[in-house]
Recover the amino acids of this structure.
């Protein structure tokens, strides 16, 4: 049984390191979504996110839109992966008890 406990402990530590690194990257990526607005016949892009009950927008240059879209998608992907890792960690915690 000690071998199984060691394997589970190693897996838990590996998952913990992965979660830590992914959380650091997640914190650096922009949150929110990109909205496209037509102002006086010109198309403008804004990165919008919620702060409390307010929606805050930040102007984005047209050439930077694809970069922001990729970063936002990466943030969503990391959020899902982090939640999956947390579920796996909880399973290991229950198995070890």
């Amino acid at each position: 049984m000690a071998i199984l406990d060691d394997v589970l402990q190693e897996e838990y530590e590996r998952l913990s390191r992965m979660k830590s690194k992914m959380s650091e990257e997640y914190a650096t990526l922009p949150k929110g979504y990109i909205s496209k607005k037509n102002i006086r016949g010109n198309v403008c892009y804004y990165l919008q996110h919620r702060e409390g009950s307010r929606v805050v927008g930040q102007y984005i240059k047209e050439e930077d839109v694809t970069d922001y879209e990729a970063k936002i998608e990466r943030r969503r992907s990391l959020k899902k992966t982090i939640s999956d890792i947390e579920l796996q960690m909880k399973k290991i915690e229950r198995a070890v008890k």
Notes: The longest helix spans residues 65-96. The chain has a mean pLDDT of 93. The longest strand covers residues 42-51. The radius of gyration is 20 Å.
